[in-house]
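Lecture notes, unit on protein representations.

Consider one protein chain, 201 amino acids long.
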Amino acid sequence: MTGESQPDPFAGHPDWQLDPPRPLVPTPATMTGQLRGRRVLIGLPGHGWRSDLRADEKVVQGSRTYVPVMSEGEWYRAEAEQTEIFAPLVPVERVWVEEYGVAGISLPADDIASRLVSLDEPARRTPVPALDAPSLSGRRVVRMRDEGSEERELRAVTELHTNAQGDVCARVTTELDWYRWGWSGHVPRTLEVLVHRLWVE
């Protein structure tokens, strides 16, 4: 009948959960379009990789293509204060863009063999439930909303703790407020997120 509440078919089934966040899949910058503001990694196959960087649009000089790359903190400050900053030019073939892959079930890696990666490209990163992460403060995190969408570009500002209601949670803030905290000293606005809705990138 209209107006009567229907029972929740998912009630009492804790194993029916939302999908985990999508993994991060590094993609060569030569295979992507617009780069401004994108999160990137730089490095050389067989040598190593540096992350937590942001890119600007590609620049062509002579016959070479470069990508202006800066630290994430500098990028946020330049955007917030509308200032110019120095951005080194990195050859495009040494730049990889963080793209989102397809969400799937992530199984814990208990043996060393399952954790080994190829040095030919940056490793893909599968988000880990906050409950399984060894630490949270300062880490990039993903908040899963009730309807299943992802909220990214967040940083954890606390470890797991119990709130006044006895729920296990952590407090997070936007990355802009996280970096602003460092350059200005202003304490960021934070949001309390329950542990089952929080993942570490």
